[in-house]
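PROTEIN DESIGN WORKSHEET
SECTION A - STRUCTURE
LENGTH: 253
TOKENS:
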């Protein structure tokens, strides 16, 4: 997508779990080359919104327009194929495999049985291509030296970066990250923010779910704040920081 082009147009998306309205008619847009932070306290509906956008959950109502096409109702696999790539709130990996293997076989990492089957089925050419791309993406985010370590031996910060490398292997038009900074030490958060700034500079569009306000503030172009399933406000980091409603939602004051 060209910088400034509308990549994602979320229109009144809604998700009910029985009587609970987890996401209540939330709308926002995201333009190519921007980083948007989806912010809010625990239980606000951020992950559910994410799962609606990526097709992991079906919508109760609303539309998700991705690069001009409504993708609501499509499978997560089909949405991914159209250029959306994501990481999950909890790292998904096979600890006994190397970083490179985890990234290369990303698409098959549902279970180790799936990976074994995938490796048996892959032809040599396809395998070579997957590993070359994984190597390229790991180098891109500064992990060239850790490629051959066992994924399980990495600290949480590098594990999160590994997941980003995996998500980048499909050359996505939109990268979605669910709380990538959660549980990281300050140094790891800074390293992660540097990688995300670099990806933005390279033209990537990123939607970032976070509840860590400080992490988001220096990094994103726009913020959408959620509380109790609804959109509380949308604006620049400065506007959001100055908002009494947002302070109240976060600090309860
Ligand atoms: P956040 O990511 O902002 O912390 P979530 O989107 O995970 O919030 O959750 C929003 C609300 O929806 C919470 O009240 C949560 O308990 C509820 N919820 C999330 N997933 C489900 C589900 N599969 N079934 C029932 N309730 C759910
Ligand atoms: Mg969440």
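SECTION B - SEQUENCE
RESIDUE ASSIGNMENT:
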């Amino acid at each position: 997508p060209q910088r400034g082009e509308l990549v994602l147009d979320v229109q009144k998306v809604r998700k009910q779990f029985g009587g609970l309205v987890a996401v209540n008619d939330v709308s926002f847009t995201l333009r190519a080359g921007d980083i948007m932070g989806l912010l809010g306290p625990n239980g606000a509906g951020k992950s559910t919104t994410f799962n609606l956008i990526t097709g992991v959950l079906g919508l109760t109502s609303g539309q998700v327009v991705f690069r001009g096409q409504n993708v609501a109702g499509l499978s997560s696999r089909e949405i991914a194929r159209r250029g959306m790539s994501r990481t999950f709130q909890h790292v998904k990996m096979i600890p006994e495999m190397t970083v490179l293997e985890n990234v290369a076989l990303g698409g098959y990492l549902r279970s180790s049985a799936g990976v074994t089957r995938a490796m048996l089925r892959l032809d040599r050419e396809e395998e070579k291509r997957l590993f070359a791309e994984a190597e390229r993406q790991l180098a891109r985010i500064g992990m060239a030296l850790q490629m051959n370590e066992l994924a399980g031996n990495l600290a949480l910060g590098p594990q999160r970066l590994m997941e980003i490398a995996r998500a980048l292997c499909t050359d996505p038009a939109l990268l979605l990250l669910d709380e990538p900074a959660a549980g990281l030490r300050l140094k790891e958060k800074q390293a992660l923010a540097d990688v995300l700034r670099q990806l933005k500079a390279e033209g990537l569009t990123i939607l970032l779910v976070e509840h860590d306000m400080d992490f988001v503030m220096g990094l994103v172009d726009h913020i959408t704040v959620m509380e109790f399933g609804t959109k509380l406000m949308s604006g620049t980091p400065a506007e959001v920081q100055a908002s009494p409603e947002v302070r109240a939602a976060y600090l309860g004051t």
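SECTION C - NOTES
Strands lie at 6-17, 20-31, 35-39, 61-66, 69-70, 84-86, 174-178, 206-210, 222-227, 230-235.
The chain has two domains: 1-83+172-253, 91-170.
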